[in-house]
User: Fold this.
Amino acid sequence: MRIMAITFEEALASVLPLARTREMCEVSLPDAVGEVLARDVIADRNIPPFPRAAMDGFAVVWTGRETERPYRVAGTVNPGTVWSGEAAEMDCVRIMTGAKVPAPFDTVIQIENAEVGREGTVRFPTPARRGQNIAREGEDVLRGAVLIPSGTYLSAHHVATLSSVGQWEVPVYKRPTVAVLATGDELVEPWERAHGPMIRNSNAHFLLAALKHCGFREVRYLGIVRDDREAVMAKIREGLACDFLVVSGGVSVGDVDIVPDCLAACGVRKILHKIAVKPGKPIFAGGSPGGGIVIGLPGNPVAVMVHFSMFLRPLLLKASGATEYLPKPILLPLVEEAINKSGGKKFSIGRLEKKGGETRVVEIPSHGSGDFVSASRAEGVFEIPLGASHLPAGEIVRFYPIWGNFLSHEG
Ligand code: AMP
Ligand code: MG
Assistant:
């Protein structure tokens, strides 16, 4: 059977429209990290909300003649308090960082530039600038401005902003549900004995771990299924109840690669079955009768690892409501030449090397798509574009720092 290959970009573009968001729900602020915001977060007041002292010191009404005469200290303003005294000419108030600067004062002279005298007086030997050491009301953000746009993947620093606008209940998108199925007569689970021709199922457990890492909690593990039509179809039907069904193995063109046929028999509409990319090539994507997405990855562990981040994760993140769902590359030079014999695009695994102030990409020698031990030493993947059979040392490549930290380039 001959299957026509499309480019990696065409493949992703043809499946992305199927990745639709679910309804939104509310989580409380401590649970918001790792979720995708479902509504713009708006400033409920100006930031800062009042003219704020940026230094400990003395608030004065600026005249340009601060150095000429001593001032009388008319009171003290601490953060969180309001000063309501009367100020005469040549009066100042002692003020602490973070306090609201009371009218009519417009300038703060830091304590280091003040000489405190006896009987409540102070001298300012250094000339002052009008408005110095005061953060103006609204100088950071004006009330009503969008602080965090909907579709943002929330991380810890967003929690500070959410807190500052009093958003305790945070609207987020419900994550898609995901089913994971491993196929192969040769597979046993990690807790079982692996003898003779049997190998341990690492793909499913990698996928479950990677999904967990990315914040997908409604994940159904369907276990290992034998390469048997009836058994595979029964598991597929179970998996189709989820928004995503991810199948490992059985999508190639070998005698026991029955997954695409079984999917078709279960009503899954094929979108693609071959991508001009290495590792991978036989990758199946389809639409389930219920509107979900089915992705079949070849059983090779490195292909599963690469395409979790490069192919599946963008779909999952888009379906989670994230506006930035594609991995972001950084452009870095190669330490050594890299070869691509595949004729399509190649994702090679690599790690970063820092030498003499420069960060460069080192390709990790691998024995092929089955070499997951080498793959686990990688920090990311880099691209050898379609049509390039050889990249010389020093060539700038697109490096995706995805390994081990799937969301380090979060949107
Ligand atoms: P397949 O795509 O089913 O032809 O499998 C390709 C290769 O990946 C074979 O060497 C399989 O033994 C191996 N493989 C398949 N499934 C898994 C799995 N779940 N964990 C580890 N290796 C696997
Ligand atoms: Mg197989």
Q: What stands out?
A: The first helix runs from residue 8 to 15.
